[in-house]
């Protein structure tokens, strides 16, 4: 494997036609919010650049991220991305099994040292020396550190890897720990959500594969293109919020009319994610559309904020116009492929959280 | 290979992590120990929370069967509230749950189970070329079309439940989304498309004809689709005799509707049907890394033994019904429901029976879902109102794709006092109990041939249960 193929060669080998390839490039451009002018650039990059290897590992988690990923997105984009990532290591999807699979991972890490993207689903539990999650006879935390050592960048899939998620809920019996507390010397891109939206996952990975760098991140380390707005900002029920029309009980008259779910505990006003624009299950719907409030699953600590069915008490009815990027402008944004070291990120996160509370509270 | 100890694992293409220790004698498994090397402690996190939070937290035990967890939590909470869903609410919840179970069966067959037959170790077999073409992991033609069909089927989730995985729509009183005529029409169209996929690709024949198969001998003559190729492989490799069941099956009854469950509840022990006596369930901890004594889940606790002391060897507890291990899953469900093909398959158990049971259920559930959509009545009430009591007790027993799932909760002072969960794979992959009786997988593995560097037969047996390890150990 001295000569690594280009993306285009991989795709052609997988039976994807030139026509489909061009369609994929334009889909990607629009998914990422780039204009048509970017289509030839993406095509050129994919024809000439060697493909970026991806290694996908699973720790303490529920596999909802993989599930979301394989099910969603435009079929073509999913096919392409899947065929690219399948080449290296994926615990859930690959063909080999047992020690052969572990050997495949070791080989992929060695061959592509310093060049691969490590995608992490789930997180390591640190209690009892990591014995609550054993993979291949060793604590997952060891496998994770090893894999991260040779990675060019790390993707934290979902709320588990990004923040800990429900398995870190009080009293956090296993001390489930987000990966940035364990991997401190690599750029980490967080794709929170439980699970993240499939299109966001494919979009981010495509961006990284195509341009060979991280997309623009906000101060929490999330790609700004998908986490720049609140659910509330683009919610189709927003007019009812502004008009003071609320659902008061499940399936009441107001629920039938599609009124706002704020009083039923909806966390849309404080949650940064793309559900209300991209939608779920190939854009069919999203939680608010099914008549249940948002639980804020892409926000840090959403699992320990009191009951999910209490209404938010710290938002103003009108005039909340700051978004994640305007809040706390004093802190420098983390842009492009810049390496954000862990210490800085957590400091910024703390700063932002404080400022955000102030603005919204 | 003779008289050796073999550790097989980690198993990938399995939901979660799993290790199996095999004592081998004369080329066959003499004794198997199943180890679930993962623990998360969900039951402990739920203590002290608002009881309604279980509806949000427990689905996150598992990204594959999250609706089953959500349905069980809603049932448990509903039981504590003394609240039943409205008939239409129950119908919509059944549709959501059935769509997930069907999607899971499809995923298991194509993504987790069948790719093993495309492996190079089988290169000499007459069917291998076709298996490679259809079944290779991520590349096979069958797998691609299954992933596609499944994504489209899950539009049902979008239409009724907002998002999947981790849906929030199912509540004790019904569902949050009252489908209108537009949703009803789209659901029907989605199911029509899915039937077309099943009948042209997977089964290669009408679903009704498949459901009318009377016994396992006739099953082997089914001519169509990817299924025929699998049956040819199964006959060649003798999958019928591999990993036999102990003849004890359990089902809590699937899809509770106003008129009763769509698939009956009951047990089947040595071919004799009987009722499920929920009070007879005990969780044995003798071989788990857990502290405490055997208890009914309402009395049980989850206290991990941090020293991981012997004879414990797994984070998984050992549930027993009236002192006996039970096999759960699609085969159990269909056999308990009395379907002739399932009864015929269950008489022997084994890899073919488990996979066959799953495919039978896939076909039957598709037919059920079509009828349910036709029964949806836009404008009816989809949610009964109720209040969470200050003190109460409730059990929620449902059937997940992989088998019987139970939640037991106690509410004290308006907060969750205890919460215990027994998941399907907890039953199937349980460790030994105090009497030394092995769990269903451990028993099924005994006698399995171990040859070559990679014991593929062991892989087939383990995967035939469709394990979900994250649920097992929650």
Report the structural category of chain B: alpha+beta
Number of strands of chain B: 17
Radius of gyration of chain B: 21 Å
Name of the top-level CATH class of chain B: Mainly Alpha
Sketch the major β-sheet of chain A: 5 strands, parallel
Uncertain segments of chain B are none
User: If helices are DSSP runs of H or I spanning 4 or more residues, what is the number of helices of chain A?
Assistant: 15
CATH topology of chain B: Cytochrome-c3 Hydrogenase, chain B
The CATH topology name of the largest domain in chain A reads Rossmann fold
Assembly state here?
Answer: heterodimer
**CATH class descriptor of the largest domain in chain A:** Alpha Beta
CATH architecture descriptor of the largest domain in chain A = 3-Layer(aba) Sandwich
Mind summarizing the main beta sheet of chain B?
3 strands, antiparallel
Question: From the alpha-carbon coordinates, what is the Rg of chain A to the nearest angstrom?
Answer: 21 Å
* C-alpha end-to-end distance of chain B: 36 Å
Sheet-strand content of chain A, in percent, reads 5-15%
Structural summary, described in words:
The complex is a heterodimer of chains A (361) and B (474). Chain A has 361 residues and is an alpha/beta fold. Chain A has two domains: 7-215, NADH:ubiquinone oxidoreductase-like, 20kDa subunit (Rossmann fold, 3-Layer(aba) Sandwich); 229-322, Cytochrome-c3 hydrogenase, C-terminal domain (Cytochrome-c3 Hydrogenase, Chain A, domain 2), CATH 4.10.480. Chain A is built from 15 helices and seven strands. In chain A, strand 4 (134-135) and strand 5 form a beta hairpin. Chain B has a single domain (4-473), classed as Orthogonal Bundle (Cytochrome-c3 Hydrogenase, chain B). In chain B, strand 4 and strand 5 form a beta hairpin. At the A-B interface, helix 4, helix 5, helix 6 and strand 4 of A face helix 1, helix 2, helix 6, helix 7 and strand 5 of B.
